[in-house]
Amino acid sequence: RQNILDWITPFNYGSQQSDYFGKRQAGTGQWLLDSAEYQAWLETKEQTLFCPGIPGAGKTILASILIKNLHERYYGNVNVGVACLYCNFGRQDEQKLNHLLASLLRQLAGHYPALPESVKGLYDHH
């Protein structure tokens, strides 16, 4: 299992997620989790939650809080996958489209207790 996930991509945005979430102060972002906008977004299909802000405003930390909330909310639900990407100007070399897509695949495939057969088949054929 781990060999296949590492073969998909060595880039692990899950560890970045943990790092960013760990930097938050207790209670940070609770206003966003409690907001009518976030609650409506949770209940609506095919909607985008857009959270703009100037550099340094805390968007990354807030995003990590939302992602953590989604992971907790949908833990164990094999019908819902949660994946994230943190794009950073200083890490452009590893943020090529194929790396980003591979990271999403790794995160979504890793969500299942057993890897999907389609992922195993991809590995076996390459």
What would a concise description of this structure say?
The chain has one domain (2-125).
Explain what the structure shows:
It is a single chain. The chain is mainly α and 126 residues long. The chain has one domain (2-125). The chain has helices at residues 2-8, 13-22, 30-34, 36-43, 59-73, 97-110, 117-125. The mean pLDDT is 91. Keywords: Repeat. It comes from Dactylonectria macrodidyma. InterPro entries: NPHP3-like_N (IPR056884), P-loop_NTPase (IPR027417).
Task: Record the SSE blueprint.
Elements lengths: L1 H7 L4 H10 L7 H5 L1 H8 L15 H15 L23 H14 L6 H9 L1
Ranges where pLDDT stays below 50 over 5 or more residues in a row are none
Strand proportion: under 5%
Total helices: the number is 7
User: What composes the largest sheet?
Assistant: none
Q: What best-fitting shape do the alpha-carbon axes yield?
A: globular
* Helix content, binned percent: 40-55%
Order of helices and strands: HHHHHHH
Features:
Nephrocystin 3-like N-terminal domain-containing protein, repeat, 126 residues, P-loop_NTPase, mainly alpha, 54% helix, NPHP3-like_N
